[in-house]
Each structure stands twice: as C-alpha cells, then as structure tokens.
Write a structure and sequence with these properties.
16 strands; binds pyridoxal-5'-phosphate
Length: 432
C-alpha cells in the first residue's frame, strides 16, 4: 500500500475552513446545477460572450509600435517571452489612476500582479515580520485576505464594521493592545467602497479619520477597490486620493471590469524604503523582488489584453466599467426590490430575518434567526433550489454564524425574481 502523508504534518492553514470555502461553493454548485445561485461574485457572462481577445492584443501591440517605438517583431516578442516582474502595463495603470481617481503615482510604484489576490499576498509578505506584525481587517472580511494571512502565518485582528464603515475606537485600542504585547498592527485591510461581503461603504468623514489614525498609530492601509466602479453618480475619493503621507497601499483588480480569466490585478506601493547600506527604494521594488520568486511575472499576453481594453477606452478603467456598472446597479436594485416584495410583513416569514441595503457593489447581507451553516445551505439547495454563501467564512469568530451573502452580479433579472421567490419559500420553512 502507498504510504500516506499525515495532514497534521502539513501547513496548519490547510485545515482552515477559509481555504476550502471556494472549492466548497464550486462543489455545491456543480451538485445542484438547476439551483439558482446567489453565491458567486463573478461578473455577468454577457460581458464575456463576444470577447475579442485578438482585437485587444492587437490594440496593445499597435500602441507599443506607435507610442513606444517598438518594431512589430519586438512588440510581439515582448508578449511571448518572460517579462519584467514589475509588469508591462504599469504606465497605463498609472494613467488610469490619474484619470479616474486623481491619484498621481509613478509607473515604477505599480506592480502588475496575477489578480488582486496575488497583490494581497505579496504586500502582506513584504510588510510583515514573523511573529511581531499583525494585520487588522474590517469584519466581515473578504476571504482572500484571511486566506493569504493564514498561509503566511500572519496574525489577524478583527475590527467591527459600523454604519459608517469601521469602529475606529476599537482599532485604536487594538493598536495599543498589540504594542503592549510586543507586537504591532502593521496594516489595516479595508474595502471602503461596497465591500465584499457586506456591501458597506466608508463615509468621507470616516475616511479622513481613518487616515489620521493611521498616521497617529503608524499603520498602513491596504485599500481594495474592486467594486467602487459600481457607484451611482460621483464616487467618494479613494483613501489613496486623500493620502498625503504615503499611508495607503492600493490594490486593484481587472476581474470585475475586464475579465476574470485574464487574472490581472495590480498593487500601488509608493512608500519609500530606507536602509543604511543602499539607496532608497520603493516598497513596489521590494514587492517586485518577492514576485520574482512567486509567479516571476504576470502573463504578458494577459496584460496585453487588459492594456488593449484600457487603450480602447482612452486609458480609463472607469469608462471601461461604465456599461457594466449600469447592469450591476439594475441587478442590485431588483434584488432589493424582490426581497421587499417577497419577504414583506405578513408573508409568513419567521421573525429575525433582516438584510442590509447597500448602495452599490455586488452583495447583500442577510441575517437569519438560525445558523446559516453548511447543513442549512444543503437543505436550501436540495429542497428549494437556491444557493447562497454562508458568511461564517468571512468572520474570524462566531459573530457571523447566522448571516448569509447574496450576490446579484452573475444572474439575469428573471433568475433574480425566481431565486428570491425560492429563497422566500426556504425562509418560511424556517418558521417554528
Ligand atoms: C474585494 C475583492 N478583492 C479582490 C478580489 C479578487 O480579485 P482578483 O480576481 O483580481 O484576484 C475579489 C474577488 O472576488 C474581491 O471581492
């Protein structure tokens, strides 16, 4: 018989439910193919239907030839060979940040990554020393960050979400407690614009107070702006735009606005790193060094697709996201409206069911009077044909055990209507 490895002798993160959360949801979706799934935070498929990869790659090659002085052969070689670890489309990303958010950074401060997920992992690795440095997160928190921290053996401190974003008093207390314990909170991860999973937003006053606190307590901010493009009307300024002291490391993804399969994201890290024995560098240089040992470089062909898309929209990511944002806002409004109709008072709903009303993003958080655990999800899928995401994955403790997340991005209007009707049936079955 083949000898086996003992799971307890592997990295302990492998036993953390966070690491199996995505494969678990994929598994349950494949076991119930007819269920309507409010689980995936994936872009709507209509945007990918006629996706013309060649057109975007050609557009980028054309840019390299016309504006960067490459011959067609040189340009193509750039796409087919290994590439620089920092990336190829850094200048285009810096331009998009300037056009869309009024953020001016040097292209050298940008590192193009394999999705925002790699950006998080690299930034955490660069920032945190073993055992001493912790990260704080706003709870509930995107699983990708929790998983990355777990893999890197970085301790995580949960800070509660409030109506205007985050409990800053609790964060301040946590910074002091860490210091008293010989540790330090190195950075706070936050998605100020329609967070995943709860759709919350940090108001302008809270943004300013958070930056002040970061200055006072000397921690950095990891700002994730995956969903800001869905805002209706004027977007609030990003933390990075308000940042005057290089406190903010900005994480970006092209998954929601371009295409997730390209796996392209980026990190902006314009912090200066000083050392006695060498000239100053940027934090982006350190992150690039780590990347050179993780994924080496982000696929140049995939960067060319994203580059071509940006160029077709005059360099603006916001312009690229405009049409998509309209669909996501329509879906979110419909989801909330259907919840209001289906789950109105007197509809036989058990007491203790409530949900929030985000103004943008992909997600709505719902609270149940019972635990929204895997057994309940299985029942919801098998008997009522509707899927959702248990929120326990997004919490460190047990505070989110009764919560679930509904995502509206992937579905058509008829599916949202039918799905909420099914969800209503399932919720009424919970009545005592
Ligand atoms: C808040 C947030 N950040 C980042 C990501 C991941 O981005 P990427 O696909 O570029 O790794 C997601 C994906 O769902 C997300 O919800």
């Amino acid at each position: 018989m083949q000898s086996a490895l003992d799971r307890d002798a592997l990295h302990p993160a492998l036993q953390d439910p966070v690491l199996s959360s995505i494969s678990f949801l994929n598994d349950i979706m494949s076991r119930y193919p007819d269920a309507i799934s409010f689980a995936p935070g994936a872009p709507h498929l209509s945007f990918l239907a006629d996706f013309d990869v060649a057109r975007y790659v050609d557009r980028y090659v054309d840019h390299l030839c016309r504006e960067r002085g490459h011959t067609p052969d040189q340009a193509r070689a750039l796409l087919y060979e290994y590439g620089p670890s920092r990336g190829l489309i850094n200048e285009l990303v810096a331009t998009a940040l300037r056009l869309d958010h009024g953020v001016t950074v040097s292209p050298d401060a940008v590192v193009i990554t394999v999705g925002a997920q790699e950006a998080m992992l690299l930034a955490l690795r660069a920032l945190c020393r073993p055992a001493v440095d912790l990260i704080a997160v706003v709870e509930p928190c995107f699983v990708g960050v929790l998983g990355a921290a777990r893999l890197l053996d970085i301790g995580v401190v949960a800070i509660s979400e409030t109506g205007d974003g985050i409990d800053l008093d609790q964060l301040e207390t946590a910074c002091r407690a860490a210091r008293a314990n010989g540790q330090r909170i190195r950075a706070l991860y936050i998605a100020p614009d329609f967070s995943n999973p709860s759709g919350s937003i940090l108001n302008i006053d809270a943004r300013r107070r958070l930056l002040d606190l970061a200055d006072r307590e000397e921690f950095l901010l990891l700002e994730d702006n995956a969903y800001g493009f869905t805002a209706s009307g004027e977007q609030l300024p990003t933390l990075k735009a308000l940042d005057t002291d290089a406190r903010v490391i900005y994480l970006g993804t092209f998954a929601k606005v371009c295409l997730p399969g390209a796996r392209v994201g980026f990190v902006v890290a314009d912090q200066i790193v000083r050392a006695a024995d060498r000239p100053e560098r940027l934090l982006a240089d350190e992150i690039t060094a780590i990347k050179s040992m993780v994924t080496v470089n982000t696929s140049p062909i995939c960067q060319a697709i994203i580059g071509g898309m940006l160029l077709e929209h005059n360099g603006s990511l916001a312009a690229l996201g405009h049409e998509k944002a309209t669909l996501y806002r329509r879906n979110l409004a419909l989801l909330l409206n259907e919840l209001d109709q289906e789950l109105s008072q007197g509809s036989g709903l058990p007491t203790g069911v409530s949900w929030n009303r985000p103004a943008g993003g992909f997600f709505v958080r719902m609270r149940l009077p019972v635990r929204a655990d895997l057994a309940l999800l299985e029942l919801s899928a098998s008997t009522y044909g509707v899927l959702w995401t248990p929120m326990s994955y997004f919490h460190l403790g047990s505070t989110g055990d009764n919560d679930l997340r509904l995502s509206c991005s992937y579905l058509d209007p008829e599916q949202i209507e039918e799905g909420i009707s099914r969800l209503g049936g399932f919720l009424r079955s919970l009545s005592p």
